[in-house]
Amino acid sequence: MKPPLPGFARFLAVTALMLAQAHAANKIVFLAGGKSHGPGEHEFRAGCMLLAKELNESGLDVQAEVYSGWPSDEKVLDGAKALVIYADGTSVVGKGWDKVDQMAKSGVGLMFMHYAVHPDKAEADKYYRPWIGGAFETDFSVNPHWVADLKPLPNHPVSRGVGSLVEAYDEFYYSIRFMADRSKVLDLATAVPDRERIKRYINLWTPYGVQELGKPQALMWGIERPGGGRGVGFTGGHYHRNWSIDGFRTLVLNAIVWTAGVEVPKDGVKSKPLTEDELNANLDDKGKADRLTVVKPGEFKKIPTAPIDTKREAAFPQDGPRKFENAGKSPTVRKGGVVKPVAESPNMNAKSARLHEIKAKIEDAKELYLVVSDNGDMGFDWSDWIEPKIYFKDGTSKDLGDLQWTSATTGYGEAKVGKNINGDALTVDKKTYDKGIGTHASSVIVYQLPPNVRGFTAKVGVDDGGMFQGGKTQGSDVKFSVYTEKPPAAGDQGDTMVPEEMFTTPDNNLEVTVWATTPMLKNPTNIDFDAEGRMYVAEGVNYRHAAGTRPEGDRIVILSDTDGNGQADTSEVFTQDKNLESPLGVAVLENKVIVSQPPDLIVYTDVNGDRKFDPAVDKREVLLTGFNARQHDHSLHSVTAGPDGQWNFNNGNTGGIFTDKSGKTFRMGSGYYKDGGGTWYQDTKAIAGKPSDDGNVWVGGFSVRMNPDGTNARIVGHNYRNSYEQALTSFGDMFQSDNDDPPACRVAEVMEGGNAGFSSADGQRSWGADRRPGQDVPTAEWRQEDPGTMPSGDVYGGGSPTGVAFYESGALGDKWQGLLLACEAGKNVVFGYLPVPEGAGFKLQRIDFLTSNKEKEFAGSDFLGGKANGELKTLFRPSDVAVGPDGALYVADWFDQRVGGHGTMDKSGSGTIYRIAPKGFKPVVPKFDLNTTEGQIAALKSPAVNVRNSGFVRLKAQGDKAVPALVELLNDKNPYIAARAVWLLAQVGPSGEKVVADLLSSDNARTRLVACRAVRAAGGDVVKLAEKMAADPSPMVRREIALSLRPVAADKALPFLVTIGEKFDGKDRAYLEAFGLGCSNKEAAVYDALRSKVTASPEMWTDAFAWLAWRLHAPQAVADQKARALSKKVSPDQVKLTLTALGFTNSAAAATAMIELANTAGFEQKDLANWWVNNRKGNLWKAFDVDGILKAMGQDPTNVKLTAVEMPAEPANAPKLPPAAEIAKLQGDPAKGKTAVAACYMCHHIGDTGVEYGPDLTSFGKQQPTEVIVNAIANPSADVSHGYDGSEIKTKDGITIMGMVLSEGDPIIVKCLGGQTQTIAKSRIASVKKMEKSLMYTPAMLGLTPQSIADIAAYLKSL
């Protein structure tokens, strides 16, 4: 033990210790992020160690320490004067927010470098801006790789010894989001980006990147915090080589020292030039990597400038109109069709084979393009070209890796020879490869080829490093393609529009021209015009799989033809909003732009008329809300102004619960719920069958008519599947198309209040659950043998119907006056109809008015399984059609290989507007002054439906003053224009009403009809109207009166309904349904009144009265209906009609009668009666204890014998089939195929033979390419047709039944193999689950060989 020091000596020792502590080195702590990116990039650990070494050897009173990641012992941070974090995002600081915040508040300096300046927005607001003054912000900041001339802040310590400018090539982020008081942030180093300096655009390129070009950007910034301490952010540091640039390194060292509060020497922090060994020290192990070299002066200037992605930038928000030439068409657009790959892989993902071999003939090619597409999502798309070789005519070959590519673009990182994108070994399915090219989709690698080449081979696949990360399989999904000429754009697969010359029309006097195309617009979903001829386009760039493609949100753009040359030349953005996600409707009514974006119907009011929504000036109102479903095709569609001045819109069968501005709530439910994806806002399944506040039960898809302010809404049609849009004529007729469960798409008139029939009247059951024996699909799907459904119109089969329009006047001339246009995207056509009144309805004769595919060789459509063939003629996907104020027709084309089922393939967002007009047509948009009566009449006469509304509104406001002009308009030779006057006359006051009253006596039936409708729209007395018009000679007029009586009480409506009923001819289905709708809630009274006039016995009823009784299906008719069913004098068809009437009668007597008929010996239709018993006992007759009645008769439904139906096991040792493409190459024999196809009859209808269980194969065979047919047979589970999903039901007593569930009620109804339908009481069921496989048997189960599959395909093609 040492003796104690004397007093003075002890004092000296303590003083020395205190002095030593006072002069201890200033501690600087570096926290380095983990391994990231490829070799030489994001070398966080090596960079930190290099900078720390320089500081420790600088002679300054500092001590630098380096730690990897967030320290496990936070005590190492104690006493630090500065903390430097160099890492990926918040991967390090995110583990110590509170500690770092504590350090900042205690005055410790903080510096974040490169990616570490990128937190999320909330973290930036809470921490980064208070700590260091700014941060990278997604959707605002950008991260291109560019050559910067860094200019340090003059006279600031960080500039000492650096020099005036420092040139460096790095991923310098710019457009940084700084703190609110920008004056407190020091621009420590700035540079000016421009197009020439940018060598690579990265995924986070935004409009702000464009806006900030040419402006000084702070790439290093700093603050002095009010409470003490400094903060610095620096965006450089991506490339490790830059530390070898003396000025670059000194600038950062100065900043670190300044952050620590240490005086920076006048010549800067001392740092000698780095050697190559020092540069390569401490690098992360990222596989085999080239040695880094010291940067040489001037080398960055040799890096080629990056090409500008004009398509992407065209979609950016813009401050004003953007001018275009040639309708936006690129001068390099190919005329010869699609540039096709010489070889390509299938889609490569976790579900596909891991490797695919590519072989391509490239004889005498000059260039080679290796393209990898990201299939809509670039996440984890590490893509490998394994052992790529080119072959020469002399028999020699060469590894492609030995050639130098001329250019290489990737979606992430940089392409590498002999390594994957991350710099590790090329590895696919756990096997490594020495030779190859690693890249990341989307990618294009271009080679100039040596002479005399003849072939190319490679194996391709997704690298394991991308496919498997974080202990799980990722969603990697790519496609490899080989081209010998330049693809249209990096990653695109073909043209971006269908050339004009590919279209045909039925009129040789018309021509099709491109009015506008991408980049003027993208992915058009809907269009409308304003009075000046400007087109408003709703865009759907962020549709489904492409969600997030446009982070700023989708847009409403305005296209204009400012010089009148017949092509749009200006594009401007009315609004862009993150809330807009593929809106399916846009309408323009003067300065109001109505956008249909679930859950809202949004009205933008352009107050100052500058065609750009500004929330500070303009108004945005959610007029109505509660509509399902966002990002779903079966949702909210566009608004059309009717001839009565009211607004109309519709919604598909996603339904909704909405309340109008009068306070009435409408409950639009059905069993279709959370199907098909999207965001659902209302539980519409729970309210299916519940009445709305108007007392009616509405289900499924629906149409709404309301005042422009959202008041007094009413449902004018319902139970659609997905009507995309409505077309209203000036006579007041409404037409629409409707989507189907294949194959029953249709175009039809909508009867006011009518039920289209897609689901049951209570919304609980699909049409398949109620499909009667012997009914074909179109009849069953639209319930055309059910009372209470509208006529289905023109049912044309499978498809994807979209927008509709009605042409009444314009450039096409009188020949096409009254033309109904209906877009059919699935069949590459716009249908045309000239509806002809027929009784109380219309005859619809269909023509192809505009098509790119006159051969009708369809592909890529949902009703055909979605398989695309890439043929340009199949890529025309019309989404909407409109009549412009110049009188021409305009068609919006979505342009895609795929359509239907929410499927798309086009990643370019391409879209085109075509104009159909007479050859040589010179557009003239009429000018009118809406402040004058003459101008208002001119507006009312516009060919564009929503433009007319501006004239309507102002003429109505004039009141009686407008009557003379409107009376004069009645004489217009165009009956549609004359009709517009009738609607207004009924609404402008007493003198106008008198004119309309006189028109009720017109000799012209159509005029009388319009007058009736106008009186109703004006709120006239419908009872008085019925007194005058119920016996009108026109069935269309009587139909209108019947519909008007629906809300009228029986005591007032009865005499008129009886009159209308008595005039039924026994044939007119539209008339009968209108009569039935008028009798709603008073059927019994009307039936009694009509029955009292029939003296004949039930078996002698006329067909007309039998149909009336069927439509009314009153409970008191049960005895008569049963008597008719049992009579031998009644025809089989009338007996079936009688059974249907009983099946729709809600009474115990009806249920009992049907049970008795089902058990009557000798009754020829007892099977049908039994079907009705089983169908109705779980719904309409549930309250009548049908099972109890059956038990009393000795028939216990819970003991019904069930038949087990299971999919057989795959035969043992079944030979593996070759790929479908190989089978398709076999020569098929149609004659042999006719025999082999017998194996398909147990499930499919082919021609007149077979069972309707699976899809009908007759049209399928005609319309599909051979390879698609072969693949459907060889791989039945690869793509199950919509509506044919299988379920497995297990009963409590061990029976397994597999089939299609038609009804999920009690009992469950399931359709099994061979068309057998079984009814299963829920009390017997143990479980129900969806099958993962198709119900279709595999080839091995059917005993089919590759040759017999080819034969069947040949036979189906021959039908």
From TrEMBL:
<feature type="compositionally biased region" description="Basic and acidic residues">
    <location>
        <begin position="316"/>
        <end position="326"/>
    </location>
</feature>
<dbReference type="InterPro" id="IPR011989">
    <property type="entry name" value="ARM-like"/>
</dbReference>
<dbReference type="Pfam" id="PF08305">
    <property type="entry name" value="NPCBM"/>
</dbReference>
<keyword id="KW-0732">Signal</keyword>
<dbReference type="InterPro" id="IPR055557">
    <property type="entry name" value="DUF7133"/>
</dbReference>
<dbReference type="InterPro" id="IPR009056">
    <property type="entry name" value="Cyt_c-like_dom"/>
</dbReference>
<keyword id="KW-0479">Metal-binding</keyword>
<keyword id="KW-0349">Heme</keyword>
<dbReference type="InterPro" id="IPR008979">
    <property type="entry name" value="Galactose-bd-like_sf"/>
</dbReference>
<feature type="region of interest" description="Disordered">
    <location>
        <begin position="316"/>
        <end position="339"/>
    </location>
</feature>
<dbReference type="InterPro" id="IPR029062">
    <property type="entry name" value="Class_I_gatase-like"/>
</dbReference>
<dbReference type="InterPro" id="IPR013427">
    <property type="entry name" value="Haem-bd_dom_put"/>
</dbReference>
<dbReference type="Pfam" id="PF06283">
    <property type="entry name" value="ThuA"/>
</dbReference>
<dbReference type="InterPro" id="IPR013222">
    <property type="entry name" value="Glyco_hyd_98_carb-bd"/>
</dbReference>
<dbReference type="InterPro" id="IPR029010">
    <property type="entry name" value="ThuA-like"/>
</dbReference>
<dbReference type="Pfam" id="PF23500">
    <property type="entry name" value="DUF7133"/>
</dbReference>
<dbReference type="InterPro" id="IPR011042">
    <property type="entry name" value="6-blade_b-propeller_TolB-like"/>
</dbReference>
<feature type="region of interest" description="Disordered">
    <location>
        <begin position="758"/>
        <end position="797"/>
    </location>
</feature>
<dbReference type="InterPro" id="IPR038637">
    <property type="entry name" value="NPCBM_sf"/>
</dbReference>
<feature type="signal peptide">
    <location>
        <begin position="1"/>
        <end position="24"/>
    </location>
</feature>
<dbReference type="InterPro" id="IPR013428">
    <property type="entry name" value="Membrane-bound_put_N"/>
</dbReference>
<dbReference type="InterPro" id="IPR011041">
    <property type="entry name" value="Quinoprot_gluc/sorb_DH_b-prop"/>
</dbReference>
<dbReference type="InterPro" id="IPR036909">
    <property type="entry name" value="Cyt_c-like_dom_sf"/>
</dbReference>
<feature type="domain" description="Cytochrome c">
    <location>
        <begin position="1228"/>
        <end position="1359"/>
    </location>
</feature>
<protein>
    <submittedName>
        <fullName>PVC-type heme-binding CxxCH protein</fullName>
    </submittedName>
</protein>
<dbReference type="InterPro" id="IPR016024">
    <property type="entry name" value="ARM-type_fold"/>
</dbReference>
<keyword id="KW-0408">Iron</keyword>
